[in-house]
Design a protein that fits this description.
A hairpin with a 4-residue loop joins strand 2 and strand 3. By secondary structure, the chain is an alpha+beta fold.
Amino acid sequence: MPKLPGIGQKEAVRVFTKLGFRVVRESGHVVMSNGSTRLTIPRHNPINAITMGAIAKDAGLTPEQFRSHL
C-alpha cells in the first residue's frame, strides 16, 4: 500500500467529514461514524502514514482516493 502523507488529526477529521462521517465521540481519539462504519482517529500530529492508510481502507477508500480529498 502506498504511503499517505503525514497529516494532522484535524485535517483527517475534515476529510472524513466531507465524505459523510460525523464525530461521535472525542477523547484520546476521535471516533467518527457514517451510520454503518466506525473510524477511530488518533490525536497525533502527524498521524503515522501506515495508520492513516489503514483508517482510509476502513472507510472504503484507496490511498489515492484519500489523497484526492486533501
